[in-house]
Write a structure and sequence with these properties.
The complex is a heterodimer of chains A (284) and B (285). With 284 residues, chain A is mainly alpha-helical. In chain A, 67% of the residues lie in helices and 3% in strands. Chain B folds into three domains: 146 residues, Rossmann fold (3-Layer(aba) Sandwich); 71 residues, no CATH class; 39 residues, no CATH class. In chain B, strand 9 and strand 10 form a beta hairpin. The radius of gyration of chain B is 21 Å and the shape is globular. The chains are: A mainly alpha (284), B alpha/beta (285). The structure holds adenosine-5'-triphosphate and magnesium ion.
Chain lengths: 284, 285
């Protein structure tokens, strides 16, 4: 399997890996939401330290977590630049014609970069520490209440797990096809934009063809073994939440409390520090 | 010498928990006109090795020189390399993509920027060379022809680039005995008519020893033997330890020698018959 930082299971057998996937999913979702309540640099630092802590105990290399940001780096830089240039309010730092850069604009852009990178890194930890099967199993449990509104939870879960199962296979297949076409002199990494788009055709078509072939084979294999998703099925692996899950919940809840206190009770730690030091950064 | 490989090592997924050393210190040379077979247990690194020769895997450790192209240099001329070395992958029919057979076969030559005249010519030649009827098949979709035909078309796609060296990764995988035979005969024909140096990976030792003049054995990423077939099989026990078989003809020779009948070198059926007739005639006299 090739270098693919985002969404690649990284087995180390750590405590984080052994957490109940349901708990991990809920905590990750909670984390994704709570990140939007972070208002001060101090709390960003606290969140970053929290992430570092999780990464260290999960024994995933820090670098591969950082690398997961690479996928969205363009988005980050693009929006940050837009924000810096078009945020008009506040204390002006520099000005060229219509372009005005304000302290608030920079503040906003930096915070957005921090927020998005912490978001991506946080969710990548879930993917690094849980197998696709664990994630779908967890999701199936969490979506169980939807059964009452006749939502086909189990079918969706099986579809998801099959899809996840085939991602690495398809990636391998893509690699092979790319190699085969390269051997036939195809150049994917040079030429004009239109040429590059055209160069994708010799990869996509064989890839589609093989996906359909695989889907058909799999469907036949399921049918011949009388697979039926509707009756009550038992599970091979029962999920069980234990002490370590409880501790994980407490730790994340503590993080959430700090973030919310900062926003609603202390009204930003940054302001407190600025006031204490008597700085005036924002030109009130 | 067409291909020189020195101390080639390669590791997949370096710096990940999935890391796997696929090649360890492999060295050998291929001369012009060689018909070389590569065997080894599944996962022994055969595909990884030949993908290096075509510059499809970036050289990490060791040296590779193909004709005058030095792959250890910073920016080797990969286009030239791929013109000289044609590579047929395992299940090559899965790489077909174009609307018609003719266009698909022309994909390689087009990438090499041959002239239109030349492309048309070499496509026609290649399709005929692999034993298909050009006129009747050229406008068919590569998805509507039979499996064996697909494989021929895929091979034609490589032949049309007029490579000097032809590398095939298990060209007979998944075919019936007749299809296998036909593809092997085709390879032999190609060796005589267009590409003069052929490297072929195979699983079936009976099949390989019938055609190749030299065999390389890979085991767990290491090159353990490089010999002509009849000599190689003298290491029968070692080969069997590596999960490899020897041809039936050689097994017969061993069985006979246990009964006191000594034969000369035997690598395949033809050798066996020849040696047997020799003994038979001696007896008669
Ligand atoms: N893209 C890849 N990423 C990681 N590991 C790989 C990759 N391709 C091959 N490997 C590993 O490298 C080793 C050698 O693989 P290779 O494909 O060269 O073997 P092979 O001799 O061609 O096997 P087979 O007879 O099954 O085709 C195997 O252990 C395989 O798991
Ligand atoms: Mg292989």
């Amino acid at each position: 399997m090739r270098d693919f930082a985002f969404g690649q299971y990284y087995p180390t057998g750590s405590v984080v890996h052994r957490l109940d996937p349901r708990v991990k999913i809920i905590l990750s979702l909670f984390y994704l939401v709570i990140i939007f309540f972070v208002v001060s640099y101090v709390t960003y630092l606290i969140v970053a330290l929290f992430l570092l802590f999780v990464v260290l105990i999960s024994k995933i290399p820090v670098l591969s977590v950082l690398k997961s940001v690479k996928a969205v780096i363009f988005l980050l830089v693009f929006t940050a630049v837009l924000n810096i240039f078009f945020y008009k309010e506040g204390k002006v730092i520099a000005e060229w014609g219509i372009i005005v850069i304000t302290a608030q604009g920079i503040d906003f852009a930096v915070k957005m970069i921090l927020r998005l990178s912490l978001l991506v890194m946080g969710s990548s930890i879930l993917m690094f520490t849980s197998t696709p099967t664990e994630i779908t199993d967890g999701m199936e449990y969490l979506m169980a209440p939807l059964k009452f509104v006749r939502f086909p939870v189990h079918d969706v879960a099986i579809i998801m797990s099959i899809a996840l199962r085939f991602i690495p296979t398809l990636m391998e297949e893509t690699d092979k096809i790319i190699m085969a076409q390269k051997a036939r002199g195809a150049a994917f990494d040079c030429g004009k934009f239109t040429e590059r788009v055209k160069a994708v055709v010799p990869i996509l078509i064989p890839l589609f063809a093989s996906s359909f072939r695989r889907a058909e084979e799999l469907a036949l294999a399921l049918d011949t073994r009388c697979y039926d998703a509707t009756p009550k099925r038992t599970r091979m692996k029962k999920l069980k939440a234990g002490w370590k899950d409880f501790i994980a919940v407490i730790i994340v809840a503590a993080l959430g409390t700090v973030i919310l206190l900062d926003k609603y009770y202390f009204l930003s730690f940054d302001r407190m520090i600025e006031n204490a030091l008597g700085w005036n950064l924002w030109g009130a | 010498m067409s291909i020189v490989i020195e101390n080639l090592s390669f590791t997949y997924g370096k710096k990940t928990p999935y890391k796997k050393q696929a090649l360890k210190n492999v060295s050998f040379t291929v001369n012009e006109g060689d018909f070389l077979g590569i065997i080894g247990h599944t996962g022994s690194g055969k595909s990884t090795l030949i993908q290096h020769i075509n510059g499809l895997i970036k050289l990490e450790e060791g040296k590779i020189k193909v004709f005058d192209i030095d792959l250890s240099q910073k920016k080797p001329d990969l286009k030239l390399l791929r013109r000289k070395v044609g590579m047929v992958f395992q299940y090559p029919e899965y790489q077909l993509f174009d609307e018609t057979v003719e266009k698909d076969v022309a994909f390689g030559p087009k990438n090499l920027k041959m002239s239109d005249e030349e492309i048309k010519q070499s496509v026609k030649e290649a399709i005929e060379l692999v034993g298909l009827d050009y006129e009747s098949i050229k406008d068919k979709s590569p998805f509507e022809i039979s499996g064996g035909q697909k494989r021929r078309v895929a091979i034609a796609g490589v032949i049309a680039m007029k490579p000097k060296v032809l590398i095939l990764d298990e060209p007979t995988a998944g075919l019936d005995p007749k299809g296998k035979e036909e593809i092997l005969e085709l390879i032999l024909k190609l060796k005589e008519s267009s590409a003069h140096t052929v490297i072929m990976i195979g699983h079936d030792i009976d099949e390989l020893s019938r055609y190749v003049k030299r065999l390389i054995v890979l085991n767990d990423g290491q090159l353990v033997y490089d010999a002509k077939p009849a000599k190689l099989f003298e290491n029968r026990e070692k080969l069997e330890e590596m999960g490899l078989d020897v041809p039936i003809a050689y097994k017969l020779k061993c069985a006979l020698s246990e009964k006191g009948v000594k034969m000369g070198e035997v690598a395949n059926d033809d050798d066996f018959v020849r040696e047997y007739l020799k003994i038979y005639k001696e007896k008669k006299n």
